[in-house]
Amino acid sequence: MRKFLLLILGILLSLTTYAQDITGNYQRIDKIPDTEESTIMEFQGNGLFKETTLGHLENSTIRKGNFQVEGDTLILNFKNLEQRNFVINRKNKIVRDDSLQKLQTDLFVKIHYKDEKENPNAIVHFNNKNKEIVLATFIESSNAFSLFNETIQFLKFSSLGKHDIEVDLKPLLGYNSTIDIYFTKVRMENAQPATQKFLIENSENGNLKLISLNDKKIWVLEKV
What we know:
7% helix, mainly beta, four-stranded mixed sheet
C-alpha cells in the first residue's frame, strides 16, 4: 500500500511540474482591431524568443530575450538592447563675454539612413518642455541651427517610413555640437519590467492564452 501511495504521489508531482512545449510562431490577436499594427511572437527551441511588432509603412519594433516554462507559468526575460539612433560627435562649450551663452545652442546636424543608399531628408520639430511643436521645418542631409531661447527643449526628427528620433537639448545647451541622426525601419526596444511572468490558462488548437502576473493583462496568441 505504501509503495502504491508513493507511486501515485510521484505521478501527481510529475504532472504539476510538467512544462508545456510552446515552441513555434504566434500572432497576437488581442490587439485593437482595424489597426495596421500586428505582433508576432517567436519561441525557439533553444530557449530564445523574439517579439516583432509591424507598424505603419512596414516599420518594425523588436524585443527579444530568453524564456522558460515552469509548470503553467511562462517567464520572459527581456534583453537590454542598445541602439544608437543619434550620436554626438563634437561638443565644445560656447564662450561669450556675457551670461547669455547658457541659453545658446549651436547644432550642425547630419542625417543618415541606416543600410540604405537613398538621399536622406527629414522634418525636424522644435518642441517645448511639454513636447508640443513650436516650429517645424524640412531639412536635408546636413543643416546648421543656432537656437537662443529656453522655450525649445526637444528636437524630433521624422522621415517617411522611418522611426522618429527624439533629441533632448538640455545636455547640449550652451555648446557648439555636431550630431549624427540615423534613421531606420527597425527599432530595438527594451521592456519594463525586464522579467515578465504569464499564467498559461489554456492551449487549444495550438493557441495560447496568457494572463500577465505583472499587470493582469491578457495576451491571446494564435499559432501561425
